[in-house]
Amino acid sequence: MADTFPHVVIAGAARTPIGVKCGTLTALCAEELAALACEEALRRSGIDRARVDAAIGANVYQYTAPRMQDIYFPRNVALRCRLNVEAPALLVQRICGSGLQTVVSGFQQIALPPAVDDARVVLCFGAETMSRTPRVLRGPRSAASFWEFREGGEVEDTLLLGLNHDLAHTTMMLTADEYGAQRGVTRRECDVWADASHARSRAALRESHLNGGDALCGMFALDTQDAAGRPVHLARDECTRKTDVDTLARLPALTPNGLVTAGNASEISDGAAAVLLAGRERAEELGLPARYEIAGYGVCGVEPRVMGRGPVPAVRQALARAGIELADVELWEINEAFAAQVVGVQKELNLEAQRVNVNGGAIAIGHPLAATGTRLLVDLMYEMERRGAGYGCASACIGGGQGIAVVLRDAAKA
Predict the structure, then answer these.
(1) 52 in helix, strand or coil?
(2) Looking at 81, 96, 217, 393, which residue is catalytic?
(3) pLDDT at 1
(4) CA proximity to 213, closest of 222, 221, 203, 223
(5) H or E stretch including 37?
(6) Which site among 111, 214, 372, 390 is 20 to 30 Å from 166 CA-CA?
(7) Can you point out the beta strands (E) in 100-253?
(8) What average pLDDT score do residues 148-170 get?
């Protein structure tokens, strides 16, 4: 399969710092964050914007932009970035896998024969401002006058609604708790993992290129304003904090099996990330960076009540398409929706923990839903470069019972 897999490269990649809920990035809507990430990815690639053929964006929690303009999200980002007006824009939504799905969809567009789709360079991005998810009043429209609303209706918290899966009679944290219990995960293992996530993230921030080191080269500094309108220079992930296992162990359990707490679950957060994809021949023709290429991808469904298991079949599918084995992958980025879930995946795939989320994961960094998958890929690529790794894999579980994975290859080592 690997010999016939199309050659699609990452020609540019960047991510914003991840902002803590109601923190520094609250003033920016998803569209604005995405435009910043895309601008940086385009700058790093060195591409003439007229050469970008299409844009694919991801945003899960719609209606966080001023005047509720998120239905225009991918198109507005493309226009803000001054792409050709003829370049089409598409919104994709696969919940926590949305950011990775933009890359899968972009890859598919490029891989199709020109008679079906002639896009050869695609800008892919994901962004989320979870801090701005609204409360809505489900007031029904009036039959007598369509533009009027009847009294009454239920008030809904749109953020909380997304954390439940009513059809499967479960919630996201319950699915992690159930899957973790099935894999024999203990509460202490969850707290140890969460503590390690924060410790690794703190170390990476100390060693970041913004602090004179060589870590987190995918992240760029962001200038914005705080809620009071004061200027802010953000050059770190805001969710990361100092903690320890004993402190985490004292937090009350939120689930029946006792595995999930506020301390070992992913942070609600804000952020954006972007990658520029190109067919290898097109990248070389335009003089774009072409070192890292998509070697394989997988998207699979799993039982909704154990949605955290999603990366397991997705990773196996992606590796099969890449024509490699688990042992060939030197670095893993597996989204830490919950420690119980990621430890379960690590156990089931028998991964070496020291190769997983080496700079911390979503428990410490944050999980801005649509941005997360793209963020994983950006961080993975730059860490592969830092360590000289030949293969890396980014994966995420997905609410509703799915998983997605993308394998990267260093073409210089192939």
Answers:
(1) coil
(2) 96
(3) 47
(4) 203
(5) helix 30-45
(6) 372
(7) 121-129, 135-138, 154-157, 164-165, 170-171, 222-225, 231-234
(8) 92
241 C-beta neighbours (distance < 10 Å), count = 12
124 is catalytic: no
Q: Tell me what the mean pLDDT of segment 156-179 comes to.
A: 96
Query: In Å, how far are 63, 66, 234, 307, 365 from 133, measured between CA atoms?
Result: 7, 11, 22, 23, 19
Give the number of other Cβ atoms within 10 Å of residue 374's Cβ: 35
The neighbouring-strand residues paired with 300 are 403
Nearest to 257 by CA among 198, 348, 311, 183: 183
- Residue among 38, 190, 393, 397 flagged as catalytic: 397
Placement of tokens 């989204």 in the chain: 335
351 and 193 Cβ atoms separated by less than 8 Å: no
Q: How many angstroms separate the Cα of 330 from the Cα of each of 317, 340, 389?
A: 17, 23, 6
Active site (annotated) includes residue 300: no
* 137 phi, psi to nearest 5 deg: -105, 115
Dig out the tokens for 382 from the structure.
Answer: 């730059």
Q: Note the helical H segments in 131-276.
A: 158-162, 172-182, 187-206, 245-249
Rounded to 5°, the CA angle 374-379-380 comes to 95
Say how many Å lie between the first and final Cα of the chain, rounded.
Answer: 15
- Write the DSSP string, 311-356: HHHHHHHHHHHHT--GGG--EEEE--SBHHHHHHHHHHHT--GGGB
Asked if residue 132 lies in contact with residue 63, where contact means CB atoms within 8 angstroms, the answer is no
**Residue 153 is encoded by which pair of tokens?**
């209706």
* H/E element, 379: helix 369-387
Residue spans per domain, the chain:
8-132+265-409
pLDDT, position 207: 98
- Encode pLDDT of 193-216 as tens digits: 999 999 999 999 999 999 999 999
| Main-chain dihedrals φ then ψ at residue 212, nearest 5 degrees | 90, 5
CA-CA distance, 253 to 275, in Å (whole number)?
A: 38
Topology of 8-132+265-409 in CATH? Peroxisomal Thiolase; Chain A, domain 1 (3.40.47)
Whether the predicted model's global pTM rises above the 0.85 cut: yes
CB neighbours of residue 41 within 10 Å: 28
Q: Which one, of 360, 406, 413, 352, lies nearest residue 388 by Cα? A: 413
Q: Which helix (H) or strand (E) holds 270?
A: strand 269-279
